Amino acid sequence: MKTTTIGPNRLPVEAVQNCLRRGKTPFYLYDQGLIRKRCRLLQEMPNAFGVFPRYAMKANSTRAILQEIHAAGVGIDASSFNEVRRAEMAGIPLENMLLTTQEAPFGEDLDTLVTSIEQGLRYNICSQTQLENIAVRLAPEKRRFSIRVHPGVGSGESVTRNTGDKYSCFGVHLSDLPALLSRAHELGVVFDQVHVHIGSGGDPAVWEENIDRELGFVETYFPQATRVNFGGGFKEARMPHETAADVYKLGQTAKKKVEEFYEKTGRKLTTEVEPGNFLVANSGYLVTRVADIKQTGDQGFTFILLDGGMEVNLRPLLYGAQHPFYILDEHGTVRFDEFHTDQHCEEREDLIVVGRCCESGDSYTLQDDHAIVPRSMIRPRVGDTCIVGGVGAYCSSMTPFNYNSHEQISEYLLTERGECHCIRSRQRLEQIVQNEHSLPPA
Ligand SMILES: *Cc1c(COP(=O)(O)O)cnc(C)c1O
């Protein structure tokens, strides 16, 4: 049966075919229309006294993606100073950025950071060292910061993505606040914003509970705060069995609590949210070619080998994350769509899908305990196109792409006009080795 789009967000097969004619697999393909829609949803979140969304740019830092999100009116949440510089190189003004980082620079790096803060970069204090190093370098009237508080409670889709419990050290822990505040007072520092980010993809109920906790901090410790940032971490659904957080509902809850806070204290707080996944995860597709099919004996499994695995999508290996598959034959006919499995008359089999790296963990079908679990799907043929969905966030920006000396792959944007636009070219092998030096002469 001929279908013309794949997946719940209806990516046109024609767009994939167009890109396939232009460059070799594997490559990423992003859906501009979906990114724009997600930006609007954030901006339309219910709120009490204004909401300012930011994009956690570590999710995907490619220039055109940053420009797209900036053009939509969404700010930037940077997690390193290099991210700030990269966003600046994409044409984004410093005033649009908040830097929330584990880095504590010194020397020349500190000088550059201080200059950027003087020029408008918003800085989120995450430690006593950061406060001490930076505040003294700024003129007294420039000593206005956001502060990230470690709430002692977090939630993430996996242990490694919980940023709010005692096993992670993001932000200033509550128990350190009194000491930090007295030092801040000596330095004449004003904290005009309070920030808490509890983790990635966690339980929406915990996200809502955090609002109460955070407003409690604002009331107890931060009389000068006029803004409150609730972090990102909205759970996104990549697979059919997953449920995404309802951002509208989270907004309603936040609105109600911020209104109650106003009634109680007379303080009107502007809110900020800063998701990464929510804005870009499902806009991204990894287009690969089925390179080979192998067997491990009668008692074993059937393996489908794709030409792109952990070096372009580390999430299965890192988190046990699952991604949907879409299979096209050479004519572009859809043979399998993870979200429309009822439409396929071919019989399904339990298959293991792997990448091309020499690493047995280079598999798409892992659980978070690293056990390999076969996926029920139709058996592709060598030469078919296998599209992996949900790769817009934490793939291009996070993978060990040069492992096994593979080149960093190209990226395309499917524009709202329906054109395939190359936003990053494939790296060349020479670029991988360009900074290497030979042995000294004997
Ligand atoms: C990573 C991160 C985010 C975004 O998390 P998502 O799960 O992608 O929404 C937001 N804020 C901070 C401080 C982060 O480190």
Describe this entry's structure for a reader:
The chain is 27% helix and 23% strand. It is built from twelve helices and 21 strands. The chain has helices at residues 13-22, 32-43, 63-71, 81-89, 107-118, 128-135, 177-186, 204-221, 247-265, 277-280, 315-319, 429-433; strands spanning 5-6, 11-12, 27-31, 51-56, 75-78, 97-100, 122-125, 144-150, 172-173, 190-195, 227-229, 270-273, 284-295, 302-306, 325-328, 334-337, 348-354, 375-378, 385-389, 410-414, 420-424. The strands form three sheets. Strands 3, 13, 14, 15, 16, 17, 18, 19, 20 and 21 form a ten-stranded mixed beta sheet that branches. An eight-stranded parallel beta barrel has the order 4-5-6-7-8-10-11-12, surrounded by six helices. Strands 1-2 form a two-stranded antiparallel sheet. β13 and β14 (302-306) form a beta hairpin. α8 (204-221) packs parallel to α9 (247-265). The longest helix has 19 residues, at 247-265. It is globular, with a radius of gyration of 23 Å. Bound molecules: pyridoxal-5'-phosphate. Pyridoxal-5'-phosphate (PLP) binds at residues 56, 58-59, 77, 79, 100, 197, 200-201, 231-234, 274-278, 393. Residues 56, 58-59, 77, 79, 100, 197, 200-201, 231-234, 274-278, 393 line the site of pyridoxal-5'-phosphate (PLP).
